Amino acid sequence: MRRLLLAGGSLVVVSGAGLALARAGASRAADPASATAGAATFRVTRRDIAAQVKATGVIKPRVGAEVRVGSRISGVVKRLHVQIGDTVARGQLLAELDDRDLVALRDQAAATLRQLEAAKRYAEADLRRKRELFAAKTLAQSDLDVVEREVAVNEQQVEAARASLAYATAQVGYARITAPISGVVASVATEEGETVAASFAAPTFLTLLDPARLEVWAYVDETDIGRIRNGQAARFTVDTYGDEEFVGRVTAVHPKAEIRDNVVDYVTVVQFQRPRNRTLRPEMTTTVRVALATRTNVVAVPIRAVRWQGTRAYVLAPQREKATAPERRWVTPGLKDDSYWEIVNGLREGDEIVVGDAATKPESGGRS
Question: Which of 163, 219, 258, 353 is the most buried (most CB within 10 A)?
Answer without folding.
Answer: 353
